[in-house]
Design goal:
This protein is mainly alpha-helical. 74% of the residues lie in helices and 0% in strands.
């Protein structure tokens, strides 16, 4: 019960206090790395069947997984490392979770719009897929503003969570609008045009 009133933690032996803190900090960092890798892997494993069921194409599935999950997480983590006074904490895992969820949603809308095009030319199909960019940008803007409001909190971990999530969402928006069509053209991803009715129904159910 004394922990309820404890204001500070002091080591039992002052000679080993510093060493214990360094070891503890290292264990926390390693634990965060393991959790981050596990979260990313689980997100990928869960998203791949969804992408395959909706797109029905290996190339589109790989494009979506690579751009929005792998690139999104790597981009976000790299951006967090460039921010001053930014440290990876337990709350940082929520940033990666946000990137996985939003990246999956953006990928479903963008690449589905590309594949539903009746154009035979991939460049023209990507041009037609720009019709969903406004909706994606609006969703991203709302998310960025919402995450940015966390900066008003006094707790530093919460402030870092809001900043990291806002930057990650902005990165996903750039990946959606600019990078995905460019990589898709370079990789030779082709639109499907009209799909079988059964697959259309499955895609609509999953997207809802």
């Amino acid at each position: 019960w004394e922990w309820l009133f404890k204001r500070d933690i002091t080591p039992t032996d002052k000679h080993i206090g510093v060493g214990g803190w360094v070891i503890g900090r290292g264990l926390i960092d390693q634990g965060l790395n393991v959790d981050m890798l596990m979260l990313t892997s689980l997100g990928m494993l869960l998203a791949l069947p969804i992408f395959w069921a909706v797109f029905g194409s290996l190339s589109s599935t790989v494009l979506a997984a690579g751009m929005f999950l792998l690139a999104g997480v790597v981009w976000t983590r790299g951006a967090m490392g460039l921010m001053p006074e930014m440290h990876e904490r337990v709350y940082s895992l929520l940033v990666y979770a946000s990137v996985i969820v939003q990246g999956t949603s953006f990928a479903l809308h963008k690449i589905s719009a590309f594949q539903s095009s009746t154009a035979h030319d991939a460049r023209q199909a990507w041009q037609e897929a720009r019709k969903v960019d406004g909706m994606i940008a609006t969703t991203a803007f709302i998310a960025i503003v919402g995450f940015a409001t966390l900066w008003t909190f006094d707790l530093q971990p919460i402030r870092e969570l809001g900043l990291g999530a806002a930057v990650g969402t902005a990165g996903l928006l750039l990946l959606t609008v600019v990078m995905t069509p460019a990589v898709g053209l370079l990789a030779g991803v082709r639109p499907f045009g009209r799909r079988p009715p059964q697959q259309n129904r499955l895609a609509l159910v999953i997207q809802r």
